[in-house]
Structures are given as structure tokens and as C-alpha cells.
Design brief:
CATH superfamily of the largest domain: Aldehyde Dehydrogenase, Chain A, domain 1
Number of domains: 2
Strand content: 15-25%
Enzyme class: oxidoreductase
Bound molecules: nicotinamide-adenine-dinucleotide
CATH class of the largest domain: Alpha Beta
CATH architecture of the largest domain: 3-Layer(aba) Sandwich
Distance between the termini: 75 Å
Protein name: 2-aminomuconic semialdehyde dehydrogenase
GO cellular component, one term: cytoplasm
GO biological process, one term: retinoic acid metabolic process
InterPro entries: Ald_DH/histidinol_DH, Ald_DH_C, Ald_DH_CS_CYS, Ald_DH_CS_GLU, Ald_DH_N, Aldehyde_DH_dom
Number of helices: 15
Strand order of the largest sheet: 15-16-17-14-13-19-20
Amino acid sequence: TMAHSEALLVLENFIGGRFVPCSSYIDSYNPSTGDVYCRVPDSGKEEVEAAVKAAKAAFPVWSSKSLLERSQILNKLADLIECDLEAFAQAESKDQGKTITFAKTVDIPRAVYNFRFFASSILHHTTECTEMASMGCVHYTSRAPVGVAGLISPWNLPLYLLTWKIAPAIACGNTVVAKPSEMTSVTAWMMCKLLEKAGVPHGVVNVVFGTGTKAGEALVCHPDVPLISFTGSTLTAQRITEKSAPHCKRLSLELGGKNPAIIFDDADLTQCIPTTLRSSFANQGEICLCTSRIFVQRGIYSEFLKRFVAEAKKWKVGNPSDPTVNVGALISKEHLEKVRSYVKKAQAEGARVLCGEGVDSLALPTGNQKGYFMLPTVIAEVKDESCCMQEEIFGPVTCVVAFDTEEEVIKRANSVKYGLAATVWSSNVGRVHRVAQRLQSGLVWTNCWLVRDLNLPFGGMKASGIGREGAKDSYEFFTEVKTITIKH
Ligand code: NAD
């Protein structure tokens, strides 16, 4: 159904500094109402070809600008996005289903910070130099931008994750062709409107909208795009790896997770419970870093469960623009069905659903009856082998299980194909170090969650990804290094 009161928002591709219409479009839904409210270009080879051409043409001038000039432009862009923070947050919420509060406090401020961070960090890298006195030689390394970078991002943190790629890519002197998720394209399009004013030359940032299989693959297969930075699912990453293999492309892959929280009986539950609720249900559980397996030591298992479930029931689900709401809508009808199906499977296997889906009733405001909402759901007594404990659900569903020993819980926490993020809760310093060292996880947060220093590496091991992003890591990914030897 179409929204009657408002005109449809129609997006256009941004190529060579100009907005260009497309010959066909995809419907985009407002997840909190179920209405089609926006049309997104359904780009393919032709549009990608034009965007790559524009990016190639812009490369010589952009890559030869001084670091300071590029840094100033990135800072200007950050300022312009920040000026429109409210409008960006509202758009992100409408497009994605997340609450306006979350978009206003997490997504958009982080998008602004991504540009500021790389505007600054790019000025401070140094290269290496060694001396080989006996040969009369010095060696040094030199780094240069690679060329046209292909950037592909998912729907859960749309502008946040896209700018986390655009900022380092252009700060290093590359030009880019970006393809946001077809389900959440609006804020990327809004950002394009600010590029000229920020001083970003035409063709440095091109955005092509469309689906993964058409626009995404055209970008991945384009011979003039030597590197692809991708954030999304493990399945898509396999496809991208296959498609890019004939071109030997450089890939950075940030993928899914099945993140454990390990809670020892000496944990401070007054900190642990609210943080573990956030780590399970923030952004509707649609964050790659969200906790979905909670291991609680037997001595505090029943107390933890009681308090955790009581608090989970307080999370309010509903209209994303209501400031008292904690949980907005899931991204799509299909995704909601998929997340619900996991709860059904758990029940069929004999697990207990303690609150949420199928247990409590969800009352929605009149305007949101057709939205894709779901209550925060806690499942207990689920086996480690269950799909609910093995597969990424990516919704407001978390499983709680008991454990006895440190040795046992490390083994169980590591017994999934993923390895993105973990949290460890204990007041024993020795134990948190020991456990953190042994977890197969790219990120380990002890006694906290989602506290990030962008200077340090971000990314996953095992099926959670290849490569890392961060000040130094993104700089290395987005530049080509050369070793030069001088003999005197
Ligand atoms: P997805 O893999 O379906 O899509 C991601 C992007 O890839 C979209 O832009 C999509 O259009 C594009 N795409 C799809 N098929 C493609 C193909 N064949 N070729 C090229 N591009 C293609 O993922 P999603 O459902 O949008 O996002 C959710 C997933 O992302 C979850 O698995 C989540 O864990 C993961 N994620 C990971 C991180 C991280 O940093 N590790 C962050 C956020 C999300």
C-alpha cells in the first residue's frame, strides 16, 4: 500500500557531481508503517560504468591534493552533516525503522565523527625507514592511494557504516563508488547533496543505488575497481569473493556475528544487566556486535535470568518517533518473519521462551499496526547445537544458558563459526585477561559493551570477516605500499 498523504520520495544516483535519474526504480518501505514511501534507483552495469568513469577521471587531481586540503574538506563535510543532524536522524529512522532517539544519539553523530576522525588521523601517519649500513643503503616505505574504491554497505547502521568507509577512502586520496543497501538509501542520498558545498570535487564520491545482485555485482566485477570494502552478511561475502577472484581484488570483509556474553558469578550485576540488555536489544538487535548467546555461571543463573527478563519486559516497542520507545521496527517484513521463525524453532526443540514473541502481547499505536515490530525475546534452556545458538538471528532475540567452569565456557563460546565480538563480565582481573586472550573474537569487551576507540582495529575472525578497519588498518587497506631502497 502507498502512503496517500505524502508524495513519494524519489532518489537519484549521484555520478560525477550530478544527480542523474535512472530508468527503473525499486520500492522502499517505511518499516514502522509498512507503506511504500520512497523509490530507489534500480541501477545496473550502465550506471556503475558511468560512476566508475567519473571516479577514474577525478582521481588524478584528488590524489595529488595535499593531506591538509583533503582533511579540511572532510571536516567541512562533517560540519554540514552535523548542521542537519535532526533531519538526517529523522530520515534514518523512517527509512530503517530504528528509533529517532537512536539515530540522533548513535548513527548520525558517528557519521559526523567518522569524517572528523579520518580528517585528523590522516595527518599523523608515518612510514617506515631502515638503514643497512654495510650495504650503504637506506630503505623506506611510501604509501599512495590505490584508485577507485568500491564500497558496499548494509541496512542496519546505514550512514554510520557507509561513512566509516567513505571517510578513510577519500582521506587517503582514493575516489569512490558507493552502493548503500537498497533498503536504506535515503541518508546517503542526503549526504550527496552536501558534497559540493563541502568542497568535495565532482567525481570523488559517486553513489549508485540499487540491489546487491545488479548494482553490487556490477561494482564487484568492474575491472577498474581494484578494491572492495564490504560490510554485510557472510553469505554475500562468499559471493563477492568468488566474483572478484578473477580480478585479484583487494577485499575488506566485515561480516556477521554470534556474539557471546560470558557472565561469571563475581560479576557486578547492576552494571552487567542493563548493559547486556542493551547489547542484546539495541537497534532492535540489528547490530553485528549484538549479544545473542548469554552464558551465566550456575551460581547466579536463576537470579540473573529473573532480573534480566523483568528488565527486558520494560523495554517499550512502538512508534520510532516516540521518545519513550526503546525498540523500533525491524527492517522488513521478510526479516521479521525470519527472526520470528527462530523463536518457533527454539520452542519446537523444547526451549523455554521467557518473554516476548509468542508469550507477551504487543500493543501498537493505530498508525503502526502494519509495521514490522517484535518484542524483545529471551530464550532459555536451549542447546548449544540449536540453530538459535549457532546462526546469526539479527533481531531482538537472545538466548541465556548456564555454565560451570571457565574452561568449559571458553570452549562453548568458541564453538560457533563466527568470531566478531564478545563480552566478559567478572571482577577478577586475572580471569578477564585469561578469558579475553582465549576467545576467538576480533573484539572482546570486558565489563562493558560497544566502547570503541576508532584508532584500534575493528573486525572479526573466522566467518566474521577478513581484514580490519580503524585508523591504521583503514589507512593500510586504502593505500598501496612501496618499499624503496636508496644506495649511496
Ligand atoms: P547483505 O549481505 O544482504 O547486504 C549487504 C550489502 O551487500 C547490501 O548493500 C547489498 O545490496 C549488497 N549485496 C548483496 N548481494 C550482493 C552481491 N551479490 N554482490 C555485491 N553486493 C551485494 O547484508 P544485510 O542484510 O544488508 O546486513 C546485515 C548483515 O551485515 C548481518 O550479517 C550483519 O552482521 C552484517 N554486519 C556486519 C558488520 C560488521 O562490521 N562486521 C556491521 C553491520 C552489519
